[in-house]
Structures are given as structure tokens and as C-alpha cells.
Please model this.
Amino acid sequence: MRNAFARVLTELAKDDESLLLYYADIGNRLFNPLKEFAEGRTINAGIAEANMASMAAGSAMMGYKPFIYTITPFTTSRNFEQIKIDIAYQNQPVIIVGTGSGLSYANLGPTHHSFEDIALMRALPNMHVICPADAYELEQLMPQLIELNAPCYFRIGKKNEPAVHDGQPTLTFGKVHVMHSGERIAVLSTGTIMPLAQELVRALNERGVSPELVSFHTVKPLDEEYLNDAMTRFDHVITLEEHNVSGGFGSAVLEYFSEQASWPRVHRFGIPDRFIDQVHSTADARAKADLTVADIMGTLSERGVV
Model:
């Protein structure tokens, strides 16, 4: 997905000289095509993420539309104060790109994991939170975020994520994308964990259930119109994310439903409230976090959903 990000940014920057990239000493070769015609707008800020965020905010105040880019925990939690005060509080149109989100860098351990980034970003006023499921969704949503001209957190994967769409979907910022319609159960997935959601739907199909599958790429603002409709159509809503179950996407859905008169039962699946370490791959890390179809189906069975 990071390759798609670099490619889309390069294409957009050819026609829009307000686009500016700050990166924290990673992806040097990744951005070589951008440097070929926009070297002055492709800035290696070094391993100084706090300074990178503040420079981007200053650039935005000068009329640029900057991106800041590095591995997720370093572009969200390490420089959180600068994001809060310089970007969100000043309401500057900086797009914060976190690459390798969730468990993408599984074998590098908790220093490179990001289970708290959605919670941090969605708690900031003025901030928008977007989690594309694959490169197709990234390509569709990225130009819309530039057009939005507001603080955004763009949570993307690392590389070689499987495509979850057969072709280019038509996506709109702030609106869910229904992968296929269903009944009784809705599976709402955000970000790169969508392949697991698709696998879960197949397992539910084998149990005689036809759930609706939804890509909830925009976490903030939530698509309240869809959630209002879901309240009338489903008995159970399953949320799936590669993030701590506390404070993330599932929590946002649950908070919204809790303020309504009646709502379906919500089942949140994500990273449990513990660190995940001593793993060698993303799949291994997900297994250690009980984020497998077998684990989820077991929980749903215990709760009488299936």
C-alpha cells in the first residue's frame, strides 16, 4: 500500500504544486520519482518526527497541502503534542500518513506496532480518520482528502496487502462501501484487516448465515446514515479492526449506538488490551491476539450469535 501512496502522490503532485511531502528518513527510494520533478517539495525531515509535524503545520499556514509520512507509531504517538497543538488546534490541512499500521511490522515488536493510533487521532477535534482496506481504496480516497483541506489521519498498510476488491470501487469519503448486502448480521471492517472479514463472512455463510459486509474506511466522521439504517435491519453488528478494542473503530460505533433509543448487539473484535510480542509474522501476531476466524466464530457461538 505504501507503493500505491507514493505513486498516487507523485501523479497528483504533477498538477498540484501545493502538495508537499515530509518523510522521516524512510522510503528514500520510494519517493525518487517524486523527487525527479519536485525535489524542493520532497523533504527528508530526518528522525525528528515532532519537528516534521510542526514544519508541516507551518507549510500549511503558508498555503501548502503537506503530507507527513513514516511508520505509524512514529507519526502519531511520538509527535502527538505537535499534531494536537500545531495541526488539529490550528485546523491546518496536514495529512498524517501512518504506514505499516496495526501488526504490519509484527516481528519488530511493540515499538513498531500501533494499537492506539485511531484512539489518539479520533479524540482530537478537527481531525478526520481514514483507514483504506487496500490500494484501490487508497487511490480513491487520497484525492478526496486533499480536496477536504482539513487535518486528516490516513492509516495505511505496508506492502503486499491483498486486494479486497475485484476492480476499482467507487468510494466517497465519510460514506461506507457495502461490499455485499446481507441480513440479520452486519460485519463492519476498517483498514487492512478486511481479508479476515471476508474470510469470516465465508465461515458464517457455511453456518447458513448471510451477513452484510461493509468497508468502513472512514472512522471519523462515522457514516451515521448507514448506522441509523443498520439499527433497523440487523440483530447483531460485528466490528473488526487491527487496533486495541478500546478506543478504536468498534468503540466509536458502540458509542454512537449507545446514544440511540435502541440498537443491535455490538460485538467488537480487535487487539486485546495487552502487548503482542515474540512473533515472527502478521499472521502469527493475529493468532496470538485471538484475531482469527476460529477465535471469532468461537466467541460468536458462545454469545449465541451462530
The longest strand covers residues 234-244. The radius of gyration is 19 Å. The domain at 177-303 is CATH 3.40.50.920 (Rossmann fold). The chain has two domains: 1-156, 177-303.
